[in-house]
């Protein structure tokens, strides 16, 4: 059998998603996630203008060969747009292969290594009272791990902190529909460094030592600031400190490592194993944060995680709402199968999204399972998708209080 057609579907059930649909000559359909937050149409064009016609007539079973064809073939390699496009093709082909085998994908990846995958939720609040309320809510739902983000005195709205009041928990949306240009936020690292350790102290006091606490630095610290911060928060036993420094410089984390035993996670902006080469071989991180959707798909992610395993480094796959349910399912099948699983990020999608993408994964007391439907276990309802037109949305820009554009 061969690939007969590759279609790109753009839908916006509350936020934008780009999905690749591959149909084989015998009518089997595979789905792949190609969503790149705030730059969605670039990947859609890459796929429909440059990739789709080259897939037609290819043997859908040759996943590795197709991956290499798309990666090495065009000469221009890597980058989030290219790697999201390759990821979508790769996921769709794995979906087809597993459907043909009549098995859930995790079986083809070696079978389950655990009963379910521990997930962490996003708890945030503009102040400690709101944050505490959010953490309690997640504990009631059975979560054993939470990422905590909170407002910083002297600053307004901060990325990663929900502006909604207490009690609203699943409302945090990273990309805003803000017209023709991104919204802007302000930042001050000094205020943050002085404020945040006290928040972790309060959390430990209120919630005890069992709760797994994660925190995202969102690339905002310099290497020496991150080293100080990681050292300051050591007493609060974080599960991880994520993206403490800007992602481009792998050697920056040497400095952080030299000063602290706080576990480090990085990688949601990475798209290739080469972004990790120094980090992994020098054991500068503890968790790989890539999204399957942005790192070339299941084929590439499995190799990256196997490479990490040799160095005792675990997975912490990116799973925000800007990864579609298809990309999330791909992560869950990998999580269930690999030995060096660490934790999985889980930001549940809204109801509109789940009407468009019908999922079979299940949540039970802090653990997700991808389900046992053949393939990835997610089907896109094209009629429902057509009802949600693409709406331009941007991630916000970050500036220091004096107006300087800052990392985030
Ligand atoms: C965040 C994301 O999930 C995370 O850790 O950093 O919200 C991330 O900023 C978005 O996925 C960006 O698109
Ligand atoms: Mg992050």
Automatic annotation (TrEMBL):
MF (Gene Ontology): mannonate dehydratase activity
Lineage: Bacteria, Bacillati, Actinomycetota, Actinomycetes, Micrococcales
Keywords on record: Lyase
PANTHER family assigned to the protein according to its UniProt record, in alphabetical order: D-GALACTONATE DEHYDRATASE-RELATED, STARVATION-SENSING PROTEIN RSPA
InterPro entries in UniProt: D-mannonate_dehydratase-like, DgoD-like, Enolase-like_C_sf, Enolase-like_N, Enolase_C-like, Mandel_Rmase/mucon_lact_enz_CS, Mandelate_racemase_C, Mandelate_racemase_N_dom
Superkingdom field: Bacteria
SMART domains: MR_MLE
EC number(s) stated in the UniProt entry for this protein: 4.2.1.8
Coiled coil: none
Domain Mandelate racemase/muconate lactonizing enzyme C-terminal: 128-263
Designated name of the protein: Mannonate dehydratase
């Amino acid at each position: 059998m061969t690939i007969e057609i590759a279609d790109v579907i753009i839908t916006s059930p509350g936020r934008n998603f780009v999905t690749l649909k591959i149909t084989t000559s015998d009518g089997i359909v595979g789905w792949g996630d190609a969503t790149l937050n705030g730059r969605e149409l670039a990947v859609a064009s890459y796929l429909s203008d440059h990739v789709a016609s080259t897939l037609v007539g290819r043997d859908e079973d040759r996943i590795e060969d197709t991956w290499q064809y798309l990666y090495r073939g065009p000469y221009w390699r890597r980058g989030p747009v290219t790697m999201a496009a390759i990821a979508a093709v790769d996921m769709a082909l794995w979906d087809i292969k597993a459907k043909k085998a009549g098995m859930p994908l995790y079986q083809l990846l070696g079978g389950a290594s655990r009963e379910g995958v521990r997930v962490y939720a996003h708890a945030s609040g503009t102040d400690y009272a709101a944050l505490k309320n959010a953490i309690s809510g997640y504990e009631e739902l059975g979560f054993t791990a939470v990422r905590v983000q909170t407002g910083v005195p002297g600053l307004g709205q901060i990325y990663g902190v929900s502006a909604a009041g207490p009690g609203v928990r699943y409302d945090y949306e990273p990309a805003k529909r803000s017209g023709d240009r991104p919204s802007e936020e302000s930042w001050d690292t000094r205020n943050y460094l002085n404020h945040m350790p006290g928040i972790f102290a309060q959390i430990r006091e209120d919630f005890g030592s069992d709760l797994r606490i994660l925190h995202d630095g969102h690339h905002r610290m310099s290497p020496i600031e991150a080293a100080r911060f990681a050292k300051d928060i050591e007493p609060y036993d974080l599960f991880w400190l994520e993206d403490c420094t800007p992602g481009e410089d792998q050697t920056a984390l040497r400095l952080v490592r030299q000063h602290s035993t706080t576990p480090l996670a990085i990688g949601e902006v990475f798209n290739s194993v080469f972004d990790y080469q120094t980090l992994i071989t020098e054991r500068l991180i503890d968790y790989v944060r890539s999204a399957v959707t942005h790192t070339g798909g299941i084929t590439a992610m499995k190799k990256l995680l196997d490479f990490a395993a040799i160095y005792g480094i675990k997975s912490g796959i990116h799973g925000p709402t800007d990864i579609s349910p298809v990309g999330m399912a791909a992560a869950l099948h990998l999580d269930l199968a690999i030995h060096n699983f660490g934790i999985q990020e889980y930001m549940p999608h809204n109801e509109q999204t789940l009407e468009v993408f019908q999922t079979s994964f299940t949540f039970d007391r802090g653990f997700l399972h991808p389900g046992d439907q053949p393939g990835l276990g997610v089907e896109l309802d094209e009629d429902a998708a057509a009802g949600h037109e693409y709406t331009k949305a941007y991630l916000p820009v970050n500036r220091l209080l004096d107006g300087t554009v800052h990392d985030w």
